[in-house]
Amino acid sequence: MILPPSMGRYTGRHRAARPPVRLGRALGARSRLLPGATVAALVVAGGGAAAIEIGRTVTGLAQRAPAGAALALSVEERVVLHAEETAEDAQVADLAARRQAAAMEASALQGRAEATQRAAREAKRTAAVAAARAQKEAAATAARTKAAEARARAAAKRQRDARRWTRPIGRWNITSGYGPRWGRTHDGLDVGAPTGTPLHAMSRGTVIMAGAVAGLGNKVEIRYWDGTVSWYGHLSRIDVRRGQTVVPGQLVGAVGNTGNSFGSHLHLEIHPTGGDDPVDPYPWLKRMGLLG
After folding, report:
1. 268 has which bridge partners?
2. Whose CB among 40, 50, 197, 226 lies 3.0–4.6 Å from 46's, allowing a Cys bridge?
3. What is the pLDDT of residues 121-131, one digit of tens each?
4. Is 180 within 8 Å of 226 (Cβ atoms)?
């Protein structure tokens, strides 16, 4: 349908309608810097076609904005962004604190473990030293005990040896016994032997007389550990002195023929209490086991 020219444009008394205003052309480059609150106010203030045009303009501006360009932020958006950045910083700080705490805890654990290991090594070393010392002390104690036992055995042996009895002469050849002879008592035994035959102490004792006397010639008297005294008469020589200590079997002199004697022999007397109380030597010698 073709309208007449008069209907193509309104030429009445009213003005022709103005073309719609372009927001981008009206605002120019400044429209890019409008804050979001201002754009929203314009959208609300404008109505109808103006509102629609504003929306289209904002959309076009957003599409034509170069990459990386940032629009100015509103107060609310800056508050939200600051809150987000603050929360992110707090999260980073919390993570760093956690990591530092974990590192410190791990270091503390490692320190405690090393301290425990050092204590274990020190305890082991101390135990080893104590064991070595105890072993050394035990060995020393054993050595001292052994030495003491050896000394005790030696002392006991010396005591036994000192108290043992032995013959005064090697071989018995009794030529005259104890008893009456020629109207008087013969107080001992006469044992025949060649001159120079060794004579020995019968046990441990002390020499109480060594010298010449009438009748018995060279004489030796010995007091033994049990109080018994022996007399040796007619000796050819004397090998001990008065006060000397003798032991069993020690050489004290030699058989001879000095004094009132009719031949080389030993005159032996036994005085059990040490006084002038001679007894028959034969039973005494037998009791001591010296005649076998």
Report:
1. 189, 232
2. 50
3. 999 999 999 99
4. no
